[in-house]
Amino acid sequence: MAKLAVITGVSRGLGASLAKFLLESGMDVIGISRTENKHLTTAAKENNQFYRHVASDLADIPQLEEAVEIIHEEIKEKNAEKEIETIFLLNNAGVVHPIDQSQHIKTEALVSHVTINSIAPMVLTNQFLKKHEEHQIPLVIANVSSGAAESPIYGWSAYCSTKASLNMYTKTVALEQEELKTDNRIIAFSPGVMDTDMQTEIRSSTKDQFVEIDKFKDYKVNNSLRQTDLVAGVLIDIITDEDVKNGKIYYISDYI
After folding, report:
1. Is the bond preceding residue 98 a cis peptide, omega within 30 degrees?
2. How big is the CA angle at 43 (ends 20 and 55), to the nearest 5 degrees?
3. Global pTM?
4. pLDDT in tens, the chain (256 residues)
5. Is 191 helix (H, G, I), strand (E, B) or coil?
6. What is the DSSP string of 54-122?
7. For residue 3, which of 72, 82, 69, 71 has the smallest C-alpha distance?
8. Which of 51, 159, 169, 250 is catalytic?
9. CA-CA to 145 of 20 to 30 Å: which in 89, 169, 194, 209?
10. DSSP label at residue 180
11. In the chain, which ranges are continuous DSSP H helix?
12. Cα–Cα distance between 59 and 33 in angstroms, integer?
């Protein structure tokens, strides 16, 4: 029997770390991102694991739905070769821009942001839950959230709102799965501040756009940003634990 992980945002950052560690642990991986990460193909070969990259822009929902169909055809084939005992769906991809006072945010930028951060992970989760009715392989779903989901931050009206919506969506889907008595589980995970390209984008803001910019610059200067490999290890420990709690919001600060 085998385990398979489907991960969004594998081209860099936390998504790349998650994919690498899971391949090294003996799990097959399908990655979704706009650009391919060649290092993951190498890691799969070195560990004799299956890896496939499916190109998709999460801001383009019809394109994402096409990607889901490709992925599920792959899952059918893999399940026929060697029975899959669990599918892990890790909705990791996200954006922080636009960073600005709400009245200055352009509608087009807002729509793209909400689509990537809220709608795309919901669509993926909904589609995987629907496919579960067909293949009956247990799902473990993790939505990467943020502390910003629970605390308003000046200049982050879009980011705070989309991450809050993802948390509530997680809790609601978990409630449904419990009532339906499925073996599917869904959680959210708040990874804290990590040393990623997103942090670089945040530090490039102006004080007018983002009042707390100096604090985030200090994170970098003081080496307070967590490495993505460390965070990925914690999330993998959580989702592979048989006692993972349906609907729970997990926080990195409770582990390191």
Report:
1. yes
2. 75
3. 0.95
4. 899 999 999 999 999 999 999 999 999 999 999 999 999 999 999 999 999 999 999 999 999 999 999 999 999 999 999 899 999 999 999 999 999 999 999 999 999 999 999 999 999 999 999 999 888 999 999 999 999 999 999 999 999 999 999 999 999 999 999 999 999 999 999 999 997 878 888 898 888 898 888 888 888 888 878 999 999 999 999 999 999 999 999 999 999 9
5. coil
6. EE--TT-HHHHHHHHHHHHHHHHHHHHHS-EEEEEEEE--------S-GGG--HHHHHHHHIIIIIHHH
7. 82
8. 159
9. 209
10. T
11. 13-24, 38-46, 61-81, 107-114, 120-135, 157-179, 197-203, 213-221, 228-239
12. 11
Sequence-distant (6+) residues with CB within 8 A of 245 are: 185, 187
**Tokens of residue 231, six digits:** 């965070």
Amino acid identity of residue 192, one-letter, is: G
159 is catalytic: yes
User: How far, in Å, CA of 207 to CA of 31, rounded?
Assistant: 36
What is the identity of the amino acid at 79?
Answer: N
Tokens of residue 51, six digits: 């890896």
